[in-house]
Amino acid sequence: MGKSKYVIMFFTFGVLVVSAFLFFDSSQDEIEKSEGALQINPGGNAEVDPEVLQAFTNTSNDKLILHDELEALLIDGETFSIYFFSPTCPSCAGTAPSIVEASEEVGIPMRMYDLVEFEQGNEQFGIIDAPTVIVFEAGEELTRFVGHDTEEEYIEWFENNYK
């Protein structure tokens, strides 16, 4: 084997090592970015308008709920409300701050459920239009509100329908 063959083998091996390092390093960065906080539309199932995304991001990522977490809350039988939304829906983005504030003022725990990321929620909870708010009590639907309204209207709705 000539000297040039060793150089080619060494060069090829070096390229493979560097490529593997870059691949694993970028994969680790993606894992670190995704850990810790639930993000709107984490699976990227739809194009999200940056302004809509910003409205949700400013609302409260800590209020987002996973499908399995919602199932567990229903089994626990506590009283709580779920704001079903689509991250691609401008009305949903406009509603999010108002509905969260209204639920806090009335004292009803509120979580936010992404209908794009967890499509099974549409059928399971009979969601025909977003935004939709459902109050659950003892694992069952107590009442629901469909559509966009003002914070004052949401407060009145919660007070009239939540016992």
Automatic annotation (TrEMBL):
What domain of life does the UniProt record list for this protein's source?
Bacteria
- Thioredoxin domain residues: 77-157
Q: Tell me yes or no: is Transmembrane helix among this UniProt entry's keywords.
A: yes
Q: Which UniProt keywords apply?
A: Membrane, Transmembrane, Transmembrane helix
- Pfam families attached to this UniProt entry: Thioredoxin
Q: Which InterPro entries match?
A: Thioredoxin-like_sf (IPR036249), Thioredoxin_domain (IPR013766)
Q: Where are the transmembrane segments?
A: 6-24
Name the chain's protein.
Thioredoxin domain-containing protein
